[in-house]
Design goal:
500 residues; alpha+beta; Vanadium-containing Chloroperoxidase, domain 2; 3-stranded antiparallel β-sheet; 7 helices; 13 strands; 14% strand; rod-shaped
Length: 500
């Protein structure tokens, strides 16, 4: 972008507004631009529920109007107190006094203007500004915008930049409004703009324009009012409301309406006014009934000081302590499943949406039917199941002898029991067993009962048993055991049983 175009656009755009708004009114057009943006949500300070257009717009207009009115009262009080000079008066007065740089040169005055080669010089004999009879020789000349006298047709002409007599210096303003007819210090534009920027930042809850960038299109040769320009299409851009405010402040310096001394104090004062005015307006709209520092639009329960966005969520107390629906009250691990549905609410990796990971000791999917270490789902865990990929192989399964498969997981490819004919009618049940193992003996003979581990270690022996026997197994760990019965005649029977 050409700097000449950019400077002229800023000076004219921010002088009043895109059309004829006053400087504070200009910020209402910016507010309208924000509220009309498709990405904008009408939530007060960017929080709480979305408000209706009428409610939000009224609150927004009142907050901004209050701020700029307060600025007007403050700024014009300061202007009246200091009664500070404008650049058009200061520059012309200094130039009429003369130069203060070199006492040996002509037109010296100790209170005059400093010479700056290429920008502020003395008119010499032969200079185009010397006049027909050299009446201007020795006067101060400035390299500046030449002013409206060089524009006959605003739609075709440009005044341009060249040497002019200092006594004829013009700010970049319309010829009908050379400069404001009141004191300069402090800059109203700087103060209005910064106050408005603070209000919009607080009002929207975001320092950035909707969509990340505010823009204003400036078409080639169709924007400047009192001369032709700009020379190309230009787009003004502001990421934040404060960026726009800063640009407005600079426009008054570049346009020659304010010196830099008028700017920064205005920005600082505007910031304070904008914040205080917004807070005052907010008090009209919302209350903080529970005194927890959060207004009703921010607070999910304005009657309970222990419920607000600054609180930590206390699980399982039935309250949304932190006013955040995403941190569920009864979802301690925040995996999206309330305690009633989550088999482990302390572990976000255990919930009904997870896939079961076998043999990790966890019920990952909260489904007891998909056993953690029972891959073949035959009811026997890996520790007891000699083949956890085949549901027909498990402790207690019917053994098919000599088929190369240990169906009953006893360590050999043999049948479940070895029984002499005299004991063939003996019943051993239930198998598997959890508590008591029942043995129905076939005759009134006396029997010896033994229980061995699968490795053959004797664990228990009972002599002189008759009839039906009840053998407690509560004391036995889970596993496979051998029951051995012997008669006085030497008959023997062995049965395998599984303790669950």
């Amino acid at each position: 972008v050409k700097r000449g175009d950019y400077g002229r656009i800023l000076a004219e755009f921010w002088a009043d507004g895109p059309d004829s708004e006053t400087p504070p009114g200009h910020w209402f057009t910016i507010l309208n631009y924000v509220m009309d943006h498709p990405d904008f949500e009408r939530r007060f300070q960017g929080q709480g529920d979305t408000l209706g257009s009428l409610e939000y717009d009224v609150k927004a207009y009142l907050a901004l109007a209050g701020a700029v009115h307060d600025v007007a009262v403050t700024v014009w009080g300061i202007k009246g107190w200091y009664d500070y000079i404008r650049p058009v008066s200061a520059i012309r007065a200094l130039c009429e006094l003369g130069q203060r740089t070199d006492p040996d040169q002509m037109n010296y005055h100790p209170a005059g203007i400093n010479l700056d080669s290429g920008y502020i010089e003395l008119v010499q004999i032969g200079d185009t500004l010397a006049g027909e009879s050299n009446e201007h020789v020795g006067k101060i000349k400035l390299k500046a915008w030449r002013g409206p006298d060089y524009i006959n047709n605003p739609e075709l002409d440009q005044a341009g930049v060249d040497w002019i007599l200092g006594e004829n210096w013009w700010p970049y303003q319309r010829p009908s409004f050379v400069t404001p007819n009141f004191a300069g210090y402090i800059s109203g534009h700087s103060t209005f703009s910064r106050a408005a920027a603070e209000v919009l930042t607080l009002l929207t809850g975001d320092e950035f324009f909707p969509g990340g960038m505010g823009v204003f299109e400036v078409p080639q040769n169709e924007f400047l009012v009192f001369e032709e320009g700009p020379s190309e299409n230009i787009q003004l851009q502001w990421a934040t409301y404060r960026d726009a405010s800063d640009q407005c402040s600079l426009s008054r310096i570049w346009g020659g309406i304010h010196p830099p001394a008028d700017d920064i104090p205005g920005r600082l004062i505007g910031r304070e006014i904008g914040i205080q005015a917004f807070e005052f307006a907010r008090e009209l709209y919302y209350k903080d009934e529970d005194g927890d520092g959060f207004y009703s639009f921010m607070d999910c329960d304005d009657s309970n000081a222990f419920m607000n966005p600054d609180q930590q969520e206390i699980a399982y107390n039935g309250l949304d302590d932190d006013c955040d629906p995403l941190t569920l009250d009864d979802d301690l691990d925040q995996d999206g499943f309330a305690m009633i549905d989550d088999c482990d609410d302390n572990n976000a990796l255990i919930n009904p949406n997870q896939l079961e990971i076998t043999y990790n000791g966890l019920d990952d999917d909260c489904d007891p039917l998909t056993l953690d270490d029972d891959l073949d789902q035959d009811g026997f865990l890996l520790i007891d199941d000699c083949d956890d990929t085949n549901a027909e192989i498990y402790p207690g399964a019917e053994e098919t002898a000599n088929n190369g498969i240990d169906e009953d997981c006893d360590g050999s490819d043999l049948i479940n029991a070895v029984i002499d004919p005299a004991l063939i009618e003996t019943r051993v049940y239930p198998n598997p067993v959890s508590q008591n193992l029942f043995v129905d003996l076939p005759s009134e003979e006396t029997y010896q009962v033994q229980i061995h581990t699968i490795q053959g270690i004797l664990l228990q022996k009972m002599n002189n048993q008759i009839g039906n026997i009840v053998i407690p197994t509560d004391h036995l760990p889970k596993g496979i055991y051998i029951l051995v019965l012997r008669t006085n005649k030497g008959d023997k029977g062995t049965w395998k049983f599984v303790k669950n």
